[in-house]
Specification:
alpha/beta; single chain; binds zinc ion; Rossmann fold
């Protein structure tokens, strides 16, 4: 559990509503089930998406938040498809980090196809740093998250670790289904995400493949920039032979 200086246990930061559900929804559900306080900060309202209005997307994000068991969901209303890597955006995110004070932050992986996702990764990292500077012009007490992990959902590269989400997988799908304007009509849903493919097929196949690597049914992949330190290699999960 978070110690005193932290208010949230985990905050996932993403560019568009529905990103976190797909990339790290299983882990957010799992942590909420463990009694942790979880939150999401969406940078944009996803208004450049082909389907849905601002209002429907906001309603859908609120419905998904309930399914994920979030304690907090915020939105910075940065223009969609124009998330720029600049000081103004860094400070907007850093202000939320000060207010929500998460111990763990989940960012998108640092290699991305969508420019907003890439900008979100870089902005999120810098905002975590800036939030801890005493002299910076932000409200509230300086605080810096202790750990940053990167959801490597769209990456096929080596991940640092996997999280077993077998028991959370159905709930994760429900959270994605809350975005009815995006994924409710199979015809529409085929035009978003990977064109021609259902988001649910992709989640199933990718999650099952990652799960297979660890001997479980469904998993999510994460990357970190530090090493993992362990005490007892004899108890490491996942068989070698
Ligand atoms: Zn996105």
């Amino acid at each position: 559990m978070a110690d005193n200086k932290y208010k949230l246990d985990v905050l996932a930061i993403a560019a568009h509503p529905d990103d976190v559900e797909i990339t790290c929804g299983g882990l957010l559900i799992k942590m909420a089930k463990l009694g942790r306080k979880t939150g999401v900060l969406d940078l944009t309202r996803g208004e450049m998406g082909t389907f849905g209005t601002d209002q429907t997307r906001a309603d859908e994000a609120a419905a998904a938040a309930k399914i994920l068991g979030l304690s907090y969901r915020g939105n910075l209303s940065i223009p969609d498809s124009a998330v720029e890597f600049n000081q103004e955006n860094k400070l907007k995110i850093a202000q939320v980090i000060r207010e929500q004070a998460p111990e763990l932050v989940i960012l998108p992986h640092w290699v991305q196809r969508h420019p907003d996702h890439l900008a979100c990764c870089r902005l999120g990292y810098d905002a975590c740093f800036l939030a801890g500077l005493k002299k910076i012009k932000l409200e509230g007490e300086p605080v810096r998250p202790r750990k940053i992990i990167y959801a490597s959902y769209y990456r096929n590269s080596e991940q640092s670790f996997l999280v077993d989400i077998t028991d959370e997988y159905e709930q994760k799908c429900e959270a994605v289904k809350a975005y009815n304007s995006q994924f409710g009509d199979p015809k529409n849903s085929l035009q978003i995400f990977h064109p021609g493919e259902s988001v649910f097929d992709i989640m199933q196949i990718r999650g099952a493949r990652l799960g297979q690597l660890a001997g479980v049914k469904q998993a999510e992949a994460y990357s970190i920039k530090e090493n993992i330190l362990i005490d007892d290699p004899q108890k490491m999960p996942v068989r070698s032979i």
